[in-house]
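Input:
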Amino acid sequence: MNEIRLIPIEGIAEIEAGDDLGEIIADAVSGLVESGDVLVVTHKVVSKAEGRTVPIGDEAEYRALVVSEAQDIIRRRGDLVITRTRHGFICANAGVDRSNTPEGTAVLLPVDPDRSAHRLRSLIEQKTGTSVAVVVSDTFGRPWRRGVVDVAIGVSGLPAIVDLRGTIDGSGRELEVTEIAVVDEIAAAADLVMGKADRIPVAIVRGLALSGEGRGADLVRPAEEDMFR
Amino acid sequence: MNEIRLIPIEGIAEIEAGDDLGEIIADAVSGLVESGDVLVVTHKVVSKAEGRTVPIGDEAEYRALVVSEAQDIIRRRGDLVITRTRHGFICANAGVDRSNTPEGTAVLLPVDPDRSAHRLRSLIEQKTGTSVAVVVSDTFGRPWRRGVVDVAIGVSGLPAIVDLRGTIDGSGRELEVTEIAVVDEIAAAADLVMGKADRIPVAIVRGLALSGEGRGADLVRPAEEDMFR
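Output:
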């Protein structure tokens, strides 16, 4: 195993609708990015660039927006609503976010985070002459465990899940745990150099040796396999 | 934000009951470890050193062991049992693990993973003359999302949760998401250089700037706040 480096990308200004985020990121990582790097980008800047910011008035309007963004309501307790989004992700408030966005606005999830990741990747590769992967991340709570962690919602250029089925462990036995959500581990790792209060929407993860093509949808556990809906 | 490095620690041989794991890790990181480093250690080697390996015969015996290790059964479907352990963690099969352990045996969770982390930390600090933190990790599945990720079950020398309550975001508003499960993100990051099939039970995470003292129990969401039991 090689060492892995988590490199925060500073100097990215506030993103607004219509900004060419691929170009902005390419400029920010210019001279730094290398082929094989994974660029983790928080969905917040992706959504903002894609015009997914909406005005909200009072709390009631926010609540209505959450419901309209949700495909399904999974649980509800007081103001907390656990939803399934159109993408299939189960998260609080349908991913509608009011932090790091101007007062009176909220940011929705990208319509198609895999497509967003793919588009960013193409632009960054063109501009920098490298071959990279892109992960679009969001911050999710979890049942049973306190605190939030960053996870992947969009992927381009690397697998979402690494399947070790048939792999032999150190004792010569086949591994029981076969599917590693490696792209969620990458998103969580990148968050360590991003910080919620800092304006660092992009990090490079360098040193991974992964090949394959995954999608955010690979991370959605099919309803028939899920015991907690 | 500084860069963070994830450094796999190679050269740790198979661990057996009674081995002085603190000394073994201290030897393996000697000349490499620095004050401020976080050492992530998979619970597997901790449990083995602590003699938490038990013989199991057939599948029925394994199933009985899982039930006896569980405090509660949360869900059951076929052979898959989702349990609450005595520590309060909700995970598959009460954490009883049959991979990377000799045929005919299973490895239980440490009795007190925080104490294990604390003991390892003291020994490593003494032997290496550094000031470090230790995280004991395990591999958990999640509801709703496919694939497993590594999480923390024991902590010594750093916070489990970072509370950003009252922190002002880039737009001058108070952050909504306030509790980051930073130690779970650290465990997930470390897994990127461990690999399930490789015998790399320890990784250094270098460059974190965290202070405080947390416990694995900080990560357990109290039943009354949990909507998915």
